[in-house]
Design a protein that fits this description.
The chain has eleven helices and eleven strands. By secondary structure, the chain is of the alpha/beta class. Strands 1-7-6-5-4-2-3 form a seven-stranded mixed beta sheet, sandwiched between helices. A hairpin with an 8-residue loop joins strand 10 and strand 11.
C-alpha cells in the first residue's frame, strides 16, 4: 500500500482543473437539456472570495452530478461533468487497488450515500447474479450474516424479498459460532435454499468485531453450494488495512467479491460518502436498461449523486498519503490500547479488536449516570443494555477520556 502525499496546493489545483473540465453552467455554451443547475445564488453565491481557496466548497456550489458508474468505460462518463467524474474513478481505483489489494483496473464501484446503500447494493447485485446465471428463484436465495451485523442486512433482505439467516456469535469473542453456522445452513438447505449471499464483517458497529472471512469461505465451499461473500467494512475499511498488515480483507482473497467502506467515519469526510467496490463482471446484473438518457446507463441504487462527496474522499486520501493515514490510524489504536490497560486495572470486562479503536464494555460496570454523562452508546435501547461502547475518534479529547476513567473508577471503588 503506497500512494504519494500531495500538498494543499497540488490538491487544490487538481480539483480546480477537474472543475474546469466540467461544463460551466454560467459559461457561453448552454446545457439546455440538463435538469440541473448550480446552487441557488440567493444563499450560495458563486463569487464568494473564499471559494478560490476552497476546492470542495467550489465543487459543492458548481453541483456536478455523478449519476451512474464511471469505472466501466469512458462512455460511462457524462461529458459535461467529466472532470470531477474522473476524480471519482481515480478514487475508486486508489481504494480498490492500494488499500484493498485489487488488480489494476479490475474493480468497479461508486460513492454511495453510505454503508447502508452500499450493503444493499451488494445484496441486489448477488440476488440478480444468482437469478441471471443459475436461473435461481428468489425463494431459493438467502442472506447470511451474524447477529452483530448492521441493520442494513435485514433491511436489504426485506427490500429484495430474500430470506435472512442470522448466525449466533460467542458472547465473549463475538465470533460466529461454528455450531450455529453448521446447523442453520443445514436447515436452510433442507428448506430448499441453494444460493447464499454471505456478509463478512470488517468491524461490526457495536463491537468492532471482525469475522473470519476464510472460515466462512471454506465452510460454504465445503458445503458445495453457490455463494458470494460481501465484506461490510463500513467502519473498519479505512482503519483496519492501515493497522493490520496481515489483513485477509483484500481483493487478493478469492473469497471476497465486494466491499463496503464509509469515508464519513474514519476519513472524516461528509456524510454521503459510502464506497461500494466490486470485482469486474458483476455490476451489469443491476443495469437499469431504462435509463437511456444517461451515457452508460445506471447501475446504482441512488441514481443522481453529488460529485462533491467523491471529491472530498479523494482530497483526504491525497492530502495525507498512505503513510500519513497509517500514522493517523495507529495513533487512534494506541490511545484505545491505553484505555484498555486502565480498564483492566479496574477489573472492567470489555471487548476490543486490537486493530480497531472501538472499546465495548459490559454494562454491569457502567451506571446510567456515567452512560448519559459521557454519551456512551448501548447495544440495545429497547431490551436493556448489556454493553456500552466508546469510539476513540479524532474529536475525542484525552481530557474527556481521563475524566471518564476517573469517574468510572470512583464509582467502582465506592461500590466496593
Amino acid at each position: 500500500m503506497y500512494w504519494k502525499k500531495l500538498s494543499h496546493e497540488e490538491v487544490k489545483k487538481a480539483v480546480f482543473d477537474a472543475l474546469n473540465e466540467n461544463h460551466d453552467y454560467r459559461g457561453e455554451n448552454p446545457a439546455l437539456g440538463v435538469p440541473g443547475t448550480y446552487l441557488d445564488t440567493t444563499e450560495f453565491y458563486h463569487d464568494a472570495p473564499f471559494l478560490k481557496d476552497a476546492p470542495f466548497m467550489s465543487v459543492m456550489v458548481n453541483n456536478p452530478n455523478h449519476i451512474g458508474i464511471h469505472t466501466l468505460s469512458e462512455e460511462s462518463v457524462l461529458d459535461i461533468f467529466k472532470g470531477t467524474q474522473k476524480i471519482e474513478r481515480d478514487l475508486i481505483n486508489l481504494v480498490a487497488e492500494q488499500i484493498f489489494g485489487g488488480e489494476k483496473g479490475q474493480q468497479d464501484g461508486y460513492v454511495a450515500t453510505g454503508g447502508t446503500e452500499a450493503n444493499i447494493q451488494a445484496i441486489w447485485v448477488y440476488r440478480n447474479y444468482f437469478r441471471d446465471e443459475f436461473k435461481a428463484k428468489t425463494e431459493e436465495i438467502a442472506v447470511v450474516y451474524s447477529q452483530d451485523s448492521h441493520y442494513s442486512m435485514p433491511k436489504g433482505a426485506n427490500l429484495l424479498n430474500l430470506h435472512n439467516i442470522i448466525l449466533e456469535v460467542d458472547e465473549e469473542t463475538r465470533q460466529i459460532k461454528q455450531e450455529s453456522l453448521e446447523n442453520k445452513i443445514a436447515e436452510a438447505k433442507e428448506a430448499g435454499y441453494k444460493y447464499f449471499i454471505v456478509i463478512a464483517n470488517l468491524s461490526t458497529t457495536m463491537f468492532g468485531s471482525v469475522d473470519d472471512v476464510d472460515l466462512l469461505g471454506d465452510f460454504f465451499t465445503a458445503a458445495n453450494v453457490q455463494f458470494r461473500i460481501h465484506v461490510d467494512a463500513a467502519y473498519g475499511g479505512f482503519i483496519y488495512p492501515f493497522t493490520n498488515e496481515d489483513s485477509a480483507f483484500t481483493f487478493k482473497n478469492p473469497y471476497i467479491t465486494s466491499i463496503t467502506s464509509d469515508g464519513h467515519k474514519m476519513l472524516q469526510t461528509p456524510y454521503g460518502t459510502g464506497l461500494f467496490l466490486i470485482r469486474k463482471g458483476y455490476i451489469h446484473h443491476v443495469c437499469t436498461q431504462e435509463a437511456q438518457y444517461i451515457p452508460g446507463k445506471d447501475y446504482t441504487l441512488s441514481g443522481s449523486r453529488s460529485g462533491a462527496n467523491a471529491v472530498s474522499m479523494w482530497m483526504i486520501l491525497k492530502i495525507h498519503g498512505s503513510e500519513g493515514l497509517k500514522y493517523k490510524m495507529a495513533s487512534l489504536c494506541d490511545r484505545a490500547e491505553r484505555i484498555c490497560k486502565k480498564l483492566e486495572r479496574m477489573g472492567v470486562e470489555y471487548f476490543r479488536n486490537p486493530h480497531l479503536n472501538i472499546i465495548t464494555m459490559k454494562a454491569a460496570y457502567i451506571s446510567d449516570r456515567i452512560a448519559k454523562k459521557y454519551n456512551l452508546v448501548a447495544d440495545s435501547y429497547e431490551f436493556g443494555a448489556k454493553w456500552y461502547k466508546i469510539v476513540v475518534m479524532h474529536h475525542v479529547r484525552q481530557g474527556a477520556l481521563d475524566s471518564f476513567l476517573m469517574d468510572l473508577e470512583g464509582e467502582l471503588v465506592s461500590k466496593g
